[in-house]
Specification:
binds zinc ion; 14 strands; 2 domains; 6-stranded mixed β-sheet; single chain; 425 residues; Immunoglobulin-like; 9 helices
């Protein structure tokens, strides 16, 4: 979730610019320097289309753009709304659509709020929060797009977010123009920042991943596990969670890594269920990245995994060039340490629940674990080359057991990072 209370996660540089002004029923204020980095307004993309689908459990806004752009999100009440501003030159929507479905969002409008800024306002039937928001580059026949997912929220936390957004606005405007009401002044906005876990269901779209002899694809298994893991983490109230894909979509390995990096994820978990030539190899394992694989089979596994982008018609990402910069090197080393701690935490909780491989914490050179600034692990849930694993991977109750164990492991990991932070001088 990338809502405005923790918008500082976004590397988009707009965190401080998110603002609402109460006098004019909340208008977002973006300082002029927002455009300083942009060559000119004409270079901004156009909004090509906007559509919203909703159910009572979740809603999704998709804004098609002629190119990638930056965005900011703010919550407003009276009535409850969420506004999304995108840097854009103009709006070129030919046929405005109604909200598809019934649920969280009852209506939406898209209009130019200011020069270089297109605003979408979602009218809410109930308090809601942004679960995740991201911009994707154009892929194949799909244009670049902004995706914003909403889920229901408690009335109190929605109100706190409205107040926080308002406070940010006032800070930006020197606070002179607007005096907060007593209610808003005494309300302490929710300041607790939850760690962001990015779950990456391996493969998708044209890339099926491994295929079991019974025809089951790895991409479907990883997605089912990812969705269940997302739910259990969100329900715990302790994390913000984003998925790299929520349906049968193809993403390059770089796009998966970029999503985690841009959103400053606190943990990246890639889920897989690959095949080994040796069908007797079975059980779950967790990998961290290292150019030196634990053993030759791990190297084969990682090489195969890294090749999937070629299968899908995309260039294989270049291996990170030798790191020259000492700081980057240090950061990478730090991340490797954190990744290793995360892998150990996951394995510790998986151990009593499911069969593990021998030496279940392993290393291999998976490109998808290349982020130098996000602790990253790859979970091989089991192998689609082993009959017992195939049976387990398709059982909902086995999936539940694994997902619960992973959620506990994630909890242990973040607990351990807290202790480390407290002890550190
Ligand atoms: Zn895989």
């Amino acid at each position: 979730m990338l809502n405005s209370t923790n918008a500082n996660r976004q590397a988009f540089g707009f965190a401080g610019f998110i603002a609402a002004c109460a006098v004019l029923l909340a208008c977002l204020v973006w300082p002029l320097q927002a455009y300083a980095q942009t060559e000119s307004i004409e270079d901004l993309p156009n909004v090509l289309d906007a559509r919203v689908s909703t159910t009572p459990e979740r809603a999704r806004l998709i804004v098609d753009l002629s190119g990638p752009s930056k965005f900011a999100i703010v919550s407003m009440d009276g009535p409850d709304r969420i506004a999304i501003d995108v840097q854009a030159f103009d709006i070129k929507i030919l046929a405005p659509a109604d909200v598809a479905g019934k649920g969280i969002v009852t209506g939406f409008t898209v209009e130019m709020a200011d020069t270089g800024r297109a605003r979408t306002i979602l009218t809410l039937a109930q308090p809601a929060q942004v679960q995740q928001a991201y911009v994707m580059d154009a892929v194949a026949d799909q244009p670049a797009r902004l995706v914003v997912d909403l889920i229901p929220d408690k009335a109190a936390s929605f109100k706190a977010r409205v107040a926080a957004d308002l406070a940010a606005s006032q800070a930006l405007q020197g606070a002179a123009a607007v005096t907060p009401s007593a209610d808003q002044a005494t309300q302490s906005p929710e300041t607790e920042v939850r760690p962001l876990v990015v779950i990456d269901p391996g493969h998708g779209g044209v890339d099926n991943g491994a295929t079991a002899p019974n025809g089951v694809h790895e991409k479907d298994i990883t997605l089912a596990f990812a969705l269940d893991l997302q739910k259990i983490l969100i329900d715990s109230g302790k994390y913000d969670v984003a998925l790299t894909r929520e349906d049968d979509t193809y993403l390059t390995l770089n796009e998966r890594v970029d999503l985690a990096r841009k959103n400053k994820a606190d943990l990246f978990i890639s889920l897989h269920a690959d095949t080994f030539q040796q069908s007797e190899i079975r059980g779950a394992s967790v990998y961290t990245r290292d150019e030196n694989a634990t053993d030759v089979l791990d190297k084969v596994l990682a090489d195969g995994e890294n090749r999937y982008d070629i299968v899908a018609g995309f260039a294989v990402p270049q291996a990170t060039p030798a790191v020259m910069d000492l700081l980057v090197d240090l950061m990478r080393r730090e991340m490797r340490k954190s990744s290793f701690v995360a892998a150990q935490s996951l394995i510790k909780e998986l151990e009593p629940s499911v069969a593990l491989r021998r030496f279940p914490v392993r290393q291999a050179d998976f490109f998808v674990l290349q982020a130098p600034d996000v602790p990253s692990v790859l979970v091989e849930l089991g192998f689609l080359s082993n009959a017992s694993d195939i049976a387990n991977l398709q059982k909902p109750e086995w999936r539940e057991r694994v997902v619960e164990a992973l959620a506990r492991g994630i909890g242990d990991y973040f607990e351990s990072t807290k202790t480390t932070a407290a002890v550190a001088p």
